[in-house]
């Protein structure tokens, strides 16, 4: 995704992926490591030329249901440099029942 597209999609659902498939559920350490690199959330901020080096810095807000009843929600704010690994929409390998958007 480029900077212009990112700015146009502020407030929309985006996902970041490294291109690897999600590991089987019983490999809990591998699943946690995969989820650190592959997630979806709301694009909240886009800062062009953030450090004067021409790169674009982004922030993504991720909300995840932590309780079985669906009432408890954990919110993660993830930040990093904009790259080709950011796409528009829900992450295709994340089950919809694990996230609240």
Question: What does it look like?
Answer:
This protein has 101 residues and is an alpha+beta fold. It has helices at residues 3-8, 28-37, and strands at residues 13-16, 39-48, 56-65, 73-81, 86-88. It has a five-stranded antiparallel beta sheet with strand order 4-3-2-1-5. The radius of gyration is 14 Å and the shape is globular.
Low-confidence stretches: 96-101
**Share of residues in strands:** 35-45%
Give the number of helices. 2
Which descriptor suits the 3D outline?
globular
Q: What descriptors fit this protein?
A:
101 residues, alpha+beta, 2 helices, 16% helix, 36% strand
Q: How does the SSE layout of this entry go?
A:
Layout: H1 3-8, E1 13-16, H2 28-37, E2 39-48, E3 56-65, E4 73-81, E5 86-88
Antiparallel strand pairs: 1-2, 1-5, 2-3, 3-4
Short description:
Helix content is 16%, strand content 36%. It is an alpha+beta fold. The longest helix has 10 residues, at 28-37.
